[in-house]
Amino acid sequence: MGSDVDEEDLSPAEMMRLIEEQSAATARRLQPDPLLLYAPWGVAWMVGFGAFFLSYGLDGRPLAPISWQLALSILFGGQLLAGAFLFWTARSGGVQVRGESAQRGMMYGYSWFVGMMSMSLIVSRFAPLLPREQVGLLYASVSLLVVAVLYMAGGAVWREWPMFLIGVWVAVVNAVGAMLGPGWHSLLVSLLVGGGFFVAGIVLRRRG
């Protein structure tokens, strides 16, 4: 037997509804869940910068016996796990993008790697010249500056205003926190950037 519903028997309204449903299903297959895109980074930054906050405190007195080196390791480890999770999600989703979009994505991915590696090398050159409490702030603030610029660039490349505005938000919070000092920077970034990524993922998912 054939299909239960013959396309010739559908009214124009029913045909339009069917097309919209198929278009929505295709979009869900090609576009990852926004919450899965933003939540891993939110966790990484909440935990990583939370460790920095416990290491510094707001008045210069540590709230927990955590060195800035350990806090930095927690932050970088969390970011690596977030990146690995996103890579696994993309691979397991089975989405294959080819042509110009694939080239853009590849170049954008390399931009993250090159940006973070060059940032680490440059900061390590100047870190020995700074007081201990300022070294962690230098690493954290410059790495977030790279993140903010790349998010804004990605939003411009793909014409995605949410992505661009998230980059602006990260840049503003990062700059304000850096001006206030290590403890405040860590607290603001943990709550406003880490938590903000959760909010962005939830809002974009609901808008889906």
From TrEMBL:
Residues spanning the membrane: 35-54, 66-88, 109-130, 136-154, 161-180, 186-204
Organism, scientific name: Nonomuraea roseola
Record flagged with keyword Membrane: yes
Keywords recorded for this protein, A-Z: Membrane, Transmembrane, Transmembrane helix
Name recorded for this polypeptide: Transporter
